[in-house]
Amino acid sequence: MLAPTPDQYQRLNEMAQAWSRCQAVMLEASPGRNPHLEVDALCFQACSEGGVESAGRDYLIGALISPVSLSLVLFPVFGSAAAPVEGERRAFELPSGRYPFVAEVLEEGLWLWRCELLGDLSDLESREEGSRLAQRLMDKVMSPEQAG
Length: 148
Description:
Elements: H1 6-22, H2 24-29, E1 40-46, E2 59-65, E3 70-76, E4 89-94, E5 97-107, E6 110-118, H3 127-141
Antiparallel strand pairs: 1-2, 2-3, 3-6, 4-5, 5-6
């Protein structure tokens, strides 16, 4: 995996801010809201050739943390990429297995594929704990499935 470029980091920050604006009412109203957490895009990587089998090199992959959830996100590398239909569902093959994603169009030219993995982060006591959780998530997701 490759680290995002400075321009891609800027776009990831814009995406997290737009997602926060779109979800503001839900985030405020959620009874399990964790006041220690904010919306943030964490641990994003550029997919290398074949790194995400059904996504290819068209996406950055990482974690989106919020006061109420931790999600796996595929974010288009190129802002000019055509957005899918809001709510469209698609499974992506990642090194650890197949994950179901839903398309979310945040605003003109800003969209993502999101797969919520944890819907309760109320036990985290700091942003640092959230960052460590996101890192562990990405390590597991991007490690090949172990044959058992």
